[in-house]
Write a structure and sequence with these properties.
Layout: H1 3-12, E1 29-32, E2 39-44, E3 54-58, H2 59-68, E4 76-80, E5 86-94, E6 98-107, E7 116-122, H3 126-138, E8 143-148, H4 158-179, E9 186-187, E10 191-192, H5 193-197, E11 206-210, E12 227-232, H6 240-248, E13 252-254, H7 263-278
Parallel strand pairs: 2-4, 7-8, 7-12, 8-9, 8-10, 11-12, 11-13
Antiparallel strand pairs: 1-2, 3-6, 4-5, 5-6
């Protein structure tokens, strides 16, 4: 992930250099760390994580640390910034609305898949799209591009598209906190599918589009080496012209089996297949 993407993420999340989070939804998670064998709270923060640096946590997250998790001065949590290894952090002070953390040693965990998956997902309604972003993050995708399609029921102007991107990025951050990931996937601003075809990344090993009735199974494609682009439609599916555009753009139509899956189910199932065949679920 390049520096511009990371700085953009920090500004969109409303995170300052010393502020872990003050206005975003509470997304703290307590997960089992395999290296320590104990339950540790994980917290996403912005900026560089330097040994012995001080971090300020404000608002809902500070209240969650103290009132819900019942953490106290001297307790240790884990912090990460989406770019590098997570670090230990000790709580030095705590009030009803703020907490200060002292950053400690790095503890790199092997939570990133060697398979770099770019999920291009047709935007679906409300919780369905939220679910896709959450599960895709948990299943190790590197990038999520929401696209607007002919049969999609969601219509977004520029302002609403930006707000939805921010919302989905918060979900991705929360999913990283929960799942133990230290790298937050890049979440793009929604754009029309046809526009995306004109600017899609060229350096991939395989490009596939889910299509009911396709004769090639997803698990039967030529094994990608490191990079794959997966295109999935919204609840209404793709139009025939969109399938044709995808084929012209180099995509291979693949199937997940004889049953028609909901869009959110299809995303989780397809990502699981890819990770189990060529990623870190093998």
């Amino acid at each position: 992930m390049d520096g511009s993407a990371s700085s953009g993420r920090a500004s969109q999340l409303g995170l300052g250099r010393r502020t872990a989070c003050s206005s975003s939804p509470v997304a703290l998670s307590t997960v089992k760390r395999h290296d320590f064998g104990t339950m540790k709270t994980r917290l996403f923060v912005s900026g560089q994580l330097i040994n012995d640096a001080e971090l300020l946590v404000e608002g809902d997250r500070a209240r969650y640390l103290g009132r819900v998790l019942r953490l106290r001065v001297g307790d240790e949590i884990r912090v990460f910034n989406g770019e590098g290894p997570e670090r230990s952090a000790n709580i030095e002070t705590m009030t009803k609305t703020t907490a200060t953390l002292r950053v400690g040693n790095a503890t790199e965990a092997a939570t990133e898949s060697p398979l770099k998956i770019h999920l291009v997902q047709g935007v679906s309604r409300g919780e369905r799209m939220d679910y896709v972003v959450q599960k895709a993050t948990e299943l190790g995708v590197k990038r999520i591009t929401p696209v607007l399609t002919e049969y999609g029921v969601v219509k977004l102007d520029e302002k609403r598209a930006a707000r939805r991107r921010d919302h989905w990025e918060h979900i991705a951050v929360s999913a990283c906190e929960q799942s133990g990931r230290t790298r937050v996937p890049l979440v793009d601003t929604p754009l029309p599918l046809r526009n995306w075809f004109g600017q899609k990344p060229a350096e991939v090993d395989a490009e596939v589009i889910l299509k009911p009735g396709a004769t090639i199974a997803l698990a039967g494609i030529t094994a990608p080496t490191t990079k794959i682009c997966l295109l999935i439609g919204p609840e209404g599916g793709f139009s025939e012209s969109e399938y044709e555009d995808a084929e012209l753009a180099g995509f291979t139509a693949v199937s997940l089996g004889p049953r028609v899956l909901r869009t959110e189910t299809a995303a989780a199932a397809a990502l699981s297949v890819l990770q189990s065949r060529w990623g870190d679920l093998a």
